Protein: Aldo/keto reductase family protein
Amino acid sequence: MPLPTSKPVADSHDDGISPVEQPVKALRNRFFRVLAASTLVITMIYGLQRLSRSGLPNFFRPSCWKGIHGSAPLLPTHFTLPSGDKIPSVALGSWRSGPGEVGRAVQTALKAGYRHIDTAWAYKNEAEIGEALKASNIPRNEVWLTSKLWNTFHAPEDVEPALDESLARLGTDYLDLYLIHWPVAQNKDGTLNKELTENNYPTWQKLEELVAKGKIRNIGVSNFNIRRFEKLTSNSLKIQPAVNQVELNFWNPQPELVKWAKEKGILLEAYSPLGSQNRVKDSLDVPEVKEISQVLGITPAQVLISWQVQRGAVVLPKSVTPSRIVENLLITKIPDRLFNTLEAVATSHKPERSVDPSKKWGVDIFE
Ligand code: A2P
Structure:
């Protein structure tokens, strides 16, 4: 009579493994299961970290998992102008993007998803930008194109020829936005035209005509302070300026202008958002900017660019470096507490402009 055993003998011999080998096999199986699970978990964590660092959508950022973006995690991708047109909130800036590099920068930007390119007659890069736009094969109506009227073309008879030159160089028959580059009119020899500088209305009337002709969709100004802007709009304009493109960055945050623009419903565009080439390093090294970048898992440049959009401005970071062009497009809402910290620290020091040709041109532009 067989003795009662805990395991039937036949079972232990089913797979040809002796009772002595069985615990070893069980242990081995468990080891491989644990190894497989750990490998899977490690791979997932590593993958998510890579995604987070590569600047992919907010969802992958640790900050987003903590829910610190609050109820509205996204910043506007567009702002709506009085005409009803929607202008993309981030553009590729091209001031100082030179020949041989600006075309490649535009191509990189368009591939990365930019649909807004900012240029000017005076940047001397419109032709190369036009070629890059053509080479991209992106339909014209999918890209927002801004250019600017230079100071020596403010006389009404000079405005249309200057615009036509920009259109020809850019290879297009209309601009989405055309700006008076500076509130400064210069004669052909570079001397100041005082009359047209103090009264931009004749120049503006010409721009209104060109909108009616279909060569421009929206018109605006650039580098106008509040007084100069209000002086222009005190005339009975057919079309109000859609934007004012100004220097806005950590060193020159212009809180009064930002507040005034918000109250009046005027869209600001922020040029040199990183402090321009001379101050970009200082900007990225601001302790509060670095701190916010760490909390949000984004780069310092992305903090500064996001900050301007969150203040209500279109932002125009300039770069000719492919990785930076891609980086600069990815904006993130900054939680209110951190946004207020950045606003406070930026507005608590003496403002410093990186661009002010007042002395050179013999007129106190910003007064
Ligand atoms: P580069 O064009 O060689 O990439 P701003 O937009 O304030 O005028 O700043 C432009 C300057 O900042 C350029 O010198 C540009 O260099 C540099 N820049 C642009 N994007 C970044 C970035 N993400 N990180 C560091 N520097 C940048």
